[in-house]
Design brief:
Blueprint lengths: L15 H20 L9 H7 L1 H24 L5 H11 L1 H21 L5
Helix pairs in contact: 1-5, 2-3, 3-4, 3-5, 4-5
Keywords: Membrane, Transmembrane, Transmembrane helix
């Protein structure tokens, strides 16, 4: 597969495409949390983790990704929200990380709009 043909350039730097991605993911996350209520026969988190090695692996994977996301935000963020959001993402994951990344991009886009175009 030729990755040069895939339009990933729109996601390398802050811009409308990347901001839409962050906000779309956040919307799906929030809707799932609100609408995905407990179902009959649902074991719950603790019981699922006790019974399923796959669930334990996925739980650890989510923890690792949250840690990497927090580290990325803390090291590469430029706004004041970067450190509090990075710390919060270790506890609440994407509920903190996605809004912080969206805010970082939005601020970068605002600052870029204030600067004259470069030739």
């Amino acid at each position: 597969m030729n990755l040069d043909a895939v339009p990933l350039e729109n996601y390398r730097r802050p811009g409308p495409a990347r901001l839409r991605l962050y906000l779309s993911l956040l919307l799906m996350l929030v809707l799932t949390a609100i609408l995905g209520k407990k179902r009959d026969g649902d074991l719950g988190t603790v019981e699922t983790l006790k019974r399923s090695s796959f669930a334990r692996i996925m739980f650890m994977d989510i923890g690792a990704l949250s840690t990497l996301g927090a580290l990325y935000l803390a090291l590469n963020g430029k706004t004041r929200v970067r450190v509090p959001a990075a710390v919060a993402s270790l506890a609440v994951g994407s509920f903190s990380l996605l809004p912080a990344l969206a805010y970082e991009d939005w601020k970068a886009m605002q600052e870029g709009a204030d600067q004259p175009p470069q030739n």
